[in-house]
Amino acid sequence: MRKQLFSAYSLKYPQIIIYMLQRGEYEIKPFMKWYFKVENFNKIAVRGELVQTLKSKLLLGLLNCLILANVLYAVYLLSRAFVTSNPVYGLLGILGLVLSPLICAMLILLPLIIARVLIVNPRQRALIKKSKVIFKKSKAIRIAVAGSYGKTTMKELLATVLSEAGEVAVTPGNKNVAASHAIFAAKLTGEEKFIIVEFGEGKPGDVVSFTKTVSPNIGVITGIAPAHLDKYPSIDAIAKDIFYLAKFVKHQNAYVNGESEYVDKYLDKDDQIYNRDGIGGWKVSKIINGYQGISFELSHGQEKISVKSRLLGRHQIGPLSAVAVISRNLGLSVGQIEQGLSKTKAFEHRMELKIVGEAYVIDDSYNGNLEGIRAGLSLLSELSARRKIYVTPGLVDQGRETKSIHYRIGQMLLSANPEKVVLIKNSVTDYILAGLEGFKGELVIESDPLKFYLNLDKILAKGDLLMMQNDWPDNYK
Amino acid sequence: MTKPNVAVIFGSRSAEHDVSIVTAIVSIIEPLELTNKYNVIPIYITKDGAWYSSPQFKNIELYSSGKLEPFLKKTKPLSVSFDRGMTLIQPGFKTKNTKIDLVFPATHGTYGEDGTLMGLLEMANVAYVGCDPVASAICMDKVLARDVVSKANVKMNRYEWFYASDFVRDQPAVMAQLAKMNYPLFVKPVHLGSSIAISRVNNQKELINAIEVAAFYDSKVIVEEAVNNLVEVTVPLIGNDDIVAANTEEPNQGKEFFDFETKYMRQGKSKANASSKGAHGYSHIPARLSEEMRNESISIAKRVYKTIGCSGIARVDLLIDSKSKDIYFNEINPLPGSLFVHNWKTVGISNVELVEKLINYATERYQQKQKINTTFSTNFLKQF
């Protein structure tokens, strides 16, 4: 407790403040939320460090100056109290010293707020306006990918297969908001045959706004799940926002993941629904699933597409089928589609298979939603292993649903019944434990995730399968 | 619920002091801490026999960075009470006593692995991992181990032994004793492991030099005839009454002899191809033998383990004539370096699982021993 209290006065404090601002892309609200929740500043930045940029260096310098000025002023007040025998100076001086970390952390936000209002926001608005024109004028087929989960995988799958037929431009990494769309649009050459844009939903109205800017021809909705419930009032609100995309592209051009439990009531009769049975008239058969990936046959009348992918798990059958059919509808030959699909593999930290010694590790640490957890546990049950170990800290941003969602995760774990469950300790651990009541396997509560991840070679042996889902950044506890 | 205090004792007055540090920290302390079930307390014994304990002794960098000596100078040595259990007495402003629930010895060679430490722990009646004092002493004396194993109908290559002092006092007599042996020969200190001071010799001159080296490290020297068409096989074992074997392992030494440097410093690679990664890149698992020979090796290894009376953990080294299919007992090690974790992983036992199993075996044996009556009421003293 004493250590926690004094951590704000440690020499590392300024570095930690700027590090957390940088991690949150200098957004004020998430920083404030973190700041007033954090218990011990010394436990921050153990898994990463401040990246030295001009901005971070300037802010760190300014913060150090602020702290120094604040302390000097407080000392001056204390000396005044001594000279004038006025206790008010003394009180103010002590308050200045005690509150110095808080005062300076708030003051450092001022230049950021000013820069955002006067420079960043107007510049972004101009860029977005310009990008709307660029997207409208583009002759390329524009495909938008939206959903609570699985967007990046779908986007990369589409890009891999469509690139067999021509130039493809695709939004990089998880850059899926208006500002990053605008930067992406500015880099388009006009030579692209296909443009694929990922839509992230951060707050109500985001997908509507992105759709109007990008004007997609085709929309893919990868699923609806409880996510960002701190911003959206309900799952219903998320679904309404995302399904605007289906309406915009006309339903026959909207491809929707039918395996998502929340999509049913928003589906239109003309939507193209994909799942592990196929899509439209295309039927799935001859499924082979293992550590090497998944393969199956997709057939429609006499036409057959042999799908072979290094992606893991039966839950990938639906997305792979959707990509095959979208590509076919866009004029790719069966050969081009098969060739493209054979190049598909797991993306970094998304159901990515790694080998540690002679054990398997499935790294799904970028997964952050209930559907992903369900898919991961389903994969864990499907694969054979000497010992199955499941590791998770739980999910963030679940708002009012936090308790019930984590209880469900506990119950899903109980059904999957791995030999060992490792829960990375945080504020949701008890909710998962409540759902896990009656679990017969080995249960470990790990308070040092870094130690755990760095020692996988000691934890695993030949034939083990460890699945890690989600990884909480430093600003969550 | 409070976690049991597990003391890991390592270092000590032994030529294998440094190997012991690696075994303790990498293969025992770190995996024990990963279980989150134990309060792991390191006890470091210096090369001159002083006992220390501090969380800093869990950090391998302390030993590799030259910081050890300055750290020892500012740290007070530990006192240990063996009065009905083992209690660490940490001197300081306020003396701190810590009762130990279980000891995990990680010492190699003399003053530890040879049974001396286990004797101390037996006197204190504290649970500990690994072989008891008698089995440890037998294992650590290559001559005594051969004498005991010979009773179990296990073959052995020809050997002779003598005291180092006999060699100094009457070298011609010792050489006469060895005269009928066929070269090449292996010369070994009787009580040391980790291939320290072991030499392969092809003539009398080399033999004398090798004996001088071995005699420098030990009071007893053993000389063995080499086995023809040699395949070396080692079998790691764990367990008390039910013995579990890992895979047979064949050191990948080719024609070159495996000395300490090759084994621990260069991963078994030749000097030109040296790597800095440490030990255990140097073997075939399982050994390149027929399944029948592998099973036979495991069976013999288990027989050796049982005959000597090992418990917890040990590793049996065998020599095989690949043409005649004869399997010879070579030696037994009651605390294999790094616990041979790399091999246990290949049979599906991780490092964390291995240390937990060893703790369970130690607890099981301790509980069995508590049931043995050690008192006997008589009127004997009344007659005085």
What do these coordinates show?
The complex is a heterodimer of chains A (477) and B (384). With 477 residues, chain A is α/β, with parallel strands linked by helices. Chain A is 45% helix and 18% strand. Chain A has helices spanning 2-6, 13-23, 28-35, 54-84, 87-98, 100-107, 109-137, 151-162, 178-186, 206-214, 235-248, 317-329, 334-342, 370-382, 402-416, 429-435, 449-454, 456-459; strands at 141-146, 168-170, 194-198, 218-221, 254-257, 272-275, 278-279, 282-290, 293-300, 303-309, 352-356, 359-364, 387-392, 420-424, 442-446, 464-469. In chain A, strands 2-3-1-4-5-6-7-8-9-10 form a 10-stranded mixed beta sheet, with helices on both faces. Chain A has a 6-stranded mixed beta sheet with strand order 11-12-16-13-14-15, with helices on one face. The two termini of chain A are 16 Å apart. Chain A has 3 domains: 2-107, no CATH class; 138-342, UDP-N-acetylmuramoyl-L-alanine:D-glutamate ligase, CATH 3.40.1190; 352-469, Mur ligase, C-terminal domain (Protein-Tyrosine Phosphatase, Chain A, Alpha-Beta Complex), CATH 3.90.190.20. The longest helix of chain A has 31 residues, at 54-84. The mean pLDDT of chain A is 91. Chain B has 3 domains: 5-129, Rossmann fold (3-Layer(aba) Sandwich); 139-154 and 228-370, D-amino Acid Aminotransferase, Chain A, domain 1, CATH 3.30.470.20; 159-225, ATP-grasp fold, A domain (Dna Ligase, domain 1), CATH 3.30.1490. In chain B, strand 7 (102-105), helix 4 (116-124) and strand 8 form a beta-alpha-beta unit. In chain B, helix 1 packs across helix 13. The longest helix of chain B is centred in the C-terminal third of the chain and has 20 residues, at 351-370. Classes of the chains: A alpha/beta (477), B alpha+beta (384). Chains A and B meet through strand 15 and helix 18 of A and helix 1, helix 12 and helix 13 of B.
